Every structure is written in structure tokens, then in C-alpha cells.
Amino acid sequence: MAGMIEAVKEKHGEGVLRNVFITCDPARDTPQVLKSYLAEFHPEVLGLTGTWQQVKDVCKAYRVYFSTPADVKPGQDYLVDHSIYFYLMDPDGDFVEAIGRNFTVPAAAKVINDHIADWKGKIDRS
Prior knowledge:
The strands form 3 sheets. The chain has a two-stranded parallel ribbon. A two-stranded antiparallel ribbon has the order 3-4. A two-stranded antiparallel ribbon has the order 5-6. The longest helix has 14 residues, at 105-118. A hairpin with a 5-residue loop joins strand 5 and strand 6 (95-100). It is built from 4 helices and 6 strands; from the N terminus they run H-E-H-E-H-E-E-E-E-H. With 126 residues, it is α+β, with helices and mostly antiparallel strands.
């Protein structure tokens, strides 16, 4: 992930990407847990969590498969299964591309860079 982000920044500069990670495990992934976990990938990744229903609704909206129990008790052990994609969205919030685990870092960065270069609208770098 870090290599992909840095390759895009190298070509297009700061502020062109907003990297967001949404958990599929809101019972265990508190904001502090997410912050610590995501720091291992790249410091610019923003972690989002919510209630189980909010996560379910986001997953449904983006067609993400996930299997996490709804009513987890504190300390209960369970497995989380989910699809793994990077979703590239345009500055208007519209879906552009799904980048799967089969992409190498250079291939993923090329897809993102090509879409950024093709974008005709304004890019808010703030």
C-alpha cells in the first residue's frame, strides 16, 4: 500500500489521494486500534469505523463481502472474512476502479495515475 501511495504522490504531488480504510470488524477495531494498525501501512491512511449496522450498510453499498457476527460480546473469539479491494473513487465520489490483490504495486499505481491524468475536473488538494 505504501509503495502505491508514494508512486502516485511522486507523479502527481501531495494531496491528490485521500486514503481511507473502513474496518469490517467494528467490535474490535476502535479508532485507536485502527490508528495503530494503519500506521504500519502508511501514515496518511485514515481509518473509519462505526456500528456493525453502519459497516454493513457501507459494505452493501460498495458490494464488499464480509462475515462478522452482529452481536459480539466483549472478549468473544470470532473470525472475520471479507473481500479485499482498493476502491478508486473520483473527486466527485463516484466509483472508478477496483484494484485487487492481483495487482503489483507498479500496476496499481499506473491504474491510479492514468485515472488521475484522465480526470478533467478540479482536484481539491487541501
